[in-house]
Specification:
CATH architecture of the largest domain: Orthogonal Bundle
Bound molecules: heme C
Radius of gyration: 27 Å
Largest sheet: 2 strands, antiparallel
Strand content: under 5%
Number of helices: 14
Strand order of the largest sheet: 1-2
Order of helices and strands: HHHHHHEEHHHHEEHHHH
Distance between the termini: 113 Å
């Protein structure tokens, strides 16, 4: 027996080497093959569902989800100046501001729409449903007209938006939904500094006069306009400095900046917002907005206000003193009510 072992030692050695090679191969495969990764961290922000993995949404509902997404991505083909359905908007697509048809994290997506609408909105002073909100963007961001709320197009847009938000609990706004709120600067945003940012980091695509670049078929834009007659109007969400700054910090220059790795600093984002919104653009009829004027957001750029700050300061900041004053006013409110009753 002993003799037998001694003579065969080279064979045992070869056997051992083969086992080592095989196990180390398996180990290294587990590092590279995604199927063997168990501890990969899931992102902690909202991710849109995908039709590729959704086999439950079928038939007419699936067709409406697909059509709704197409209307968001190629709005101008249907409703632009040469639109196939109606010619009622400025040629921009919803997707120009709601990236990837409203599915991209931190890019003004629709992740929290199904979960939070219908909701009371201070701007209208009424309870708005999704169709009302969509038409707000048609009238303001697309500087156009509202579409029929009971038509197939609106129904498809709503079906798509509800499908997108299907996994979000009612009432919740997940991380990464909508636009990021940037911290306020200690100073007013500066259109002069913003112009420098614009020339260095935006002009190459959006143009010398912010007019953008139309696509070759003149349906929509390769680079959408940032001001001028074809841009969003003064009632649009982006005309509020904080919305513009938050959107641009996380997403511009296009496909270079992300929330995790922005190209602009917060300061540059506020300043370029001030520069762009300072330029001429269509005016909106806002006579019916903000029935309760004390509910206007800090950066709503049109008076009157109840907090005593000027229109200029509400437009460009500094916003921190307004925040402080409003907090004080809130604390005082019950006292003032009591005084009113006494008098
Ligand atoms: C010029 C940019 C722009 C365009 C174009 C645009 N939107 Fe918007 N939209 C915004 C901004 C800004 C907001 C407000 C986001 C906020 O308040 O944080 C908004 C808000 C919304 C909301 C509500 C989101 C929420 O979470 O409350 C919906 C729904 C919406 N848009 C749909 C559309 C549709 C549909 C279109 C195309 C018909 C469109 N938008 C075109 C800029 C735009
Ligand atoms: C590489 C080209 C490129 C650069 C540089 C760039 N953008 Fe954009 N921008 C785009 C494109 C393309 C879109 C529309 C995205 C879409 O439709 O998917 C867009 C959309 C926008 C929008 C929303 C739509 C609109 O027209 O109102 C704003 C606001 C914007 N960009 C601001 C900026 C600012 C500010 C800068 C500079 C910091 C900048 N962009 C730099 C290509 C660019």
């Amino acid at each position: 027996m002993k003799k037998y072992l001694k003579e065969d030692w080279p064979m045992y050695l070869i056997f051992l080497i083969i086992i080592i090679v095989i196990t180390s191969g398996l180990l290294s495969e587990s590092k590279t093959n995604p199927d063997v990764i168990f501890n990969e961290k899931q992102p902690d922000y909202w991710i849109a569902p995908s039709l590729y993995t959704d086999h439950i949404t079928t038939g007419e509902q699936r067709r409406m989800v697909i059509y709704g997404e197409d209307l968001i991505a190629h709005t101008s083909s249907y409703f632009g100046p040469h639109g196939s359905i109606k010619q009622i908007s400025n040629g921009m697509n919803c997707q120009n501001c709601h990236l990837d048809a409203g599915t991209r994290p931190y890019a003004n997506n629709y992740g929290a729409v199904a979960s939070t609408y219908p909701k009371f909105r201070d701007r209208s002073g009424t309870i708005d449903n999704i169709s009302g909100r969509v038409n707000d963007c048609f009238e303001r961001s697309l500087n156009g007209k509202a579409i029929n709320t009971s038509g197939y197009e609106m129904k498809s847009i709503i079906t798509f938006i509800k499908w997108l938000g299907q996994n979000v609990k009612k009432g919740e706004k997940p991380k990464g939904a909508g636009i990021t709120d940037l911290p306020y600067l200690d100073r007013a945003a500066s259109p002069i500094k913003g112009e420098i940012v614009y020339n260095q980091k935006c002009k190459s695509c959006h143009g010398n006069d912010g007019q953008g670049v139309e696509n070759s078929k003149a349906i929509g834009y390769t680079y959408p306009p940032l001001w001028g007659e074809h841009s969003y109007n003064t009632g649009a969400g982006l005309f509020r400095l904080s919305r513009f700054a938050g959107y641009v910090r996380d997403n511009m220059p296009f496909n270079q900046a992300t929330h995790q790795a922005p190209v602009l600093s917060d300061e540059e984002a506020w300043d370029v917002a001030a520069f762009v919104n300072f330029q001429p653009r269509p005016k909106a009829d806002m006579t019916r907005d903000w029935p309760n004027i004390s509910a206007k957001p800090l950066d709503h750029p049109f008076g009157p206000y109840t907090d005593g700050f000027s229109e200029q300061q509400h437009k460009y900041g500094p916003f921190k003193p307004i925040v402080t004053k409003r907090k004080e006013m809130k604390k005082m409110a019950p006292v003032m009510e009591v005084n009113k009753i006494k008098n």
